[in-house]
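Z., the sequence and structure:
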Amino acid sequence: MTLVIAHKLNDRITFSSDSRLSFDGHGAFDKGIKIFKVPFKLRGPAKSKEDFNKYEFEYDYGLAIIGSSVNAYTVKESIAELLPNLQYMSYISDASFFSLADLILKVYRDVSMALSSTQRERGLSEILLGGFCIKKGRIRLVRFFPIIKPDTIEYTYDEILPEDGISFFGSAKALGEQIYQADKTLKPLQIIERAIASGEDNSIGGNPQCGGFYGENFKISGVLKKKLNYDGQTYTTIHYLRGFELDQTDAHKKYPYLFVSYGYVPID
């Protein structure tokens, strides 16, 4: 039910995906959010009352979900509660990115075990998480995933894209790889768009969505997509945010006179 692409080139790291959520043969929802920004905040030992509200480190991490939406959204919400509420206790505390991954793995395992006990493989998900590692001084990426064995399911994580490259995940992984191998000049959003338009895998659909690291922090971006007009010759640029079409043409003329301020990435 997903195609997610992680891409790293120099210091630019992005997550891109489609926006379809499928419901076991009972239709699909093409405006599912699959890429998120989650805050990471770390306090030091409190020496006074004022220290309780002071953070020594604050970064925005990036997260992408694959697989069971119930599993993935539950884990995502758990991560979003965990990461902004951390405190190191002393100089022996380890706040490296992999130590955070160890904490998150416990949540991921507990949620997955509870759901897979009744749903088996349908209750499983994968999670991609990226963030600034205080210890290494750079962005690192990990993937949380299940290992399905005949009599049990194990849960683990590993590092992805330690070097420049592109990785594909989800039910349409093979289709995404096929499109990329045919033309390696394509950007992740273009691969997602072609995979959706091909109609070869109905587990993906909707519109592309993306987010990326700008310096040390992850930001969600809107997507600019050209739509052919009825005359068959001219195009209109459509703004999409998390798979939703966003028309702000007359935002300055109509109540409540509010503009949604996002950066946008063109597909073409």
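Helices lie at 69-82, 97-119, 173-182, 188-198. The mean pLDDT is 89.

Let me know what you think.
H.
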